[in-house]
From TrEMBL:
This is Zinc-binding dehydrogenase. Pfam families: ADH_N, ADH_zinc_N. Belongs to the zinc-containing alcohol dehydrogenase family. One of its GO terms (molecular function) is zinc ion binding. It comes from Litorilinea aerophila. PROSITE patterns: ADH_ZINC.
């Protein structure tokens, strides 16, 4: 089969590799669409310690089952060849302490498709049957490939505890930030501020009627202070992961407020510890999603509650390297790039 193989920093090439074979409790899927994630951009640059070349990345995907391992239907009786599916790429021991607490995404032994094993930037990919979800008939394969990032957005918003009376800041209007924005709107958040350096991404954010801030033209914290009577926002969610945006969220949140870090750009960041202590600010990380978040994300998509199709760009797998470079340069008015065979 053909696969897009990451071979080192900014080195991604289409190669001919052996077809994967499903284990007894796995399925073989013909990939339809596979999204490019922000964490994979870091990996592509060589900045992600989890990803080691050579590697077939890709963990946001949809496709069709073409083969079943001999025990796959014992795990998921509803699975059959020919079904359209998506996959939760986080593989965890169901008996781990974290899994038993309902948070398998925090299992110490977790393995992720596209990081610890070959991913979906290929004609075919294998996955545990337990992680495979059959798609509703009316849901397109393109939108189904967004289940994974939608799950990330739902998780971050839930951990933030956004309510209808809250004022919210979202830093970064990439795919995750844009999805969080839509979840926040659905909760009826009182006021939503959103910031991004890229004018095209700000334009997408403005489409949803939120207060969009250009950090190069305005001081984000000062704008929020001025427009909240000096109080600040109740919740700040950083979907970038840069030192500046993490500090910005802490400075912008109200005393007693909550900050969610979900962006994974910088490995470490200096923060205003004394401000956090004196203001009783809660800081919490948000990593990926639980199975319930993933299932709810699929339902959200099936119900047509997400607006993103005008900003989807589909490109052949052979152009994958060029698409990574585009996202690193000027992606244009694009919320998500989906690679396909």
């Amino acid at each position: 089969m053909q696969a897009l193989v990451w071979e080192g920093p900014r080195q991604m090439h289409l190669r001919e590799v052996s077809d994967p074979q499903p284990a007894a409790d796995e399925v073989l899927i013909r990939t339809a669409f596979s999204g490019i994630c922000g964490s994979e951009l870091g990996g592509y640059l060589g900045h992600n310690s989890l990803r080691k070349p050579p590697l077939i990345m890709g963990h946001e995907f949809s496709g069709e089952i073409v083969a079943l391992g001999e025990q796959a239907t014992a795990v998921r009786p509803e699975l059959a060849v020919g079904q359209r599916v998506t996959v939760n790429p986080i593989i965890a021991n169901p008996l781990s302490r974290a899994s038993l607490k309902g948070r398998p995404n925090l299992s110490r032994d977790r393995r992720i498709i596209g990081i610890h094993r070959p991913g979906s930037y290929a004609d075919y990919v294998t996955a545990p049957a337990a992680n495979v979800y059959v798609l509703p008939e009316h849901l397109s394969l393109e939108l189904a490939a967004l289940t994974e990032p939608m799950g990330c957005a739902l998780r971050a918003a839930r951990l933030a505890g956004i309510t209808a009376t809250d004022r919210v800041l979202i830093t970064g209007l990439g795919p995750i930030g844009l999805l969080i924005l839509q979840v926040a709107k659905a909760t009826g958040a009182r006021t939503i501020f959103a910031s991004d350096l890229d004018p095209d991404r700000r334009a997408i954010g403005a489409h949803f009627g939120v207060r969009v801030i250009d950090p190069r033209a305005e001081n984000v914290v000062e704008v929020i202070q001025a427009e909240t009577g000096g109080e600040g926002v109740d919740v700040a969610i950083d979907a970038v992961g840069a030192d500046a945006t993490r500090r910005e969220c802490i400075a912008a949140v109200a005393w007693g407020g909550k900050v969610i870090f979900t962006g994974l750009h910088a490995e470490e960041s200096p923060i205003q510890a004394n401000l956090v202590i004196r203001s009783e600010i809660t800081i919490q990380g948000s990593f990926a999603y639980t199975p319930i978040d993933f299932e709810d994300a699929l339902t959200w998509l099936a119900d047509g509650r997400l607006e993103i199709e005008p900003w989807l760009l589909k490109a052949p797998l052979a152009q994958g390297g060029a698409m990574f470079e585009r996202l690193l340069d000027r992606p244009g008015r694009v919320a998500k790039i989906l690679l396909h065979g």
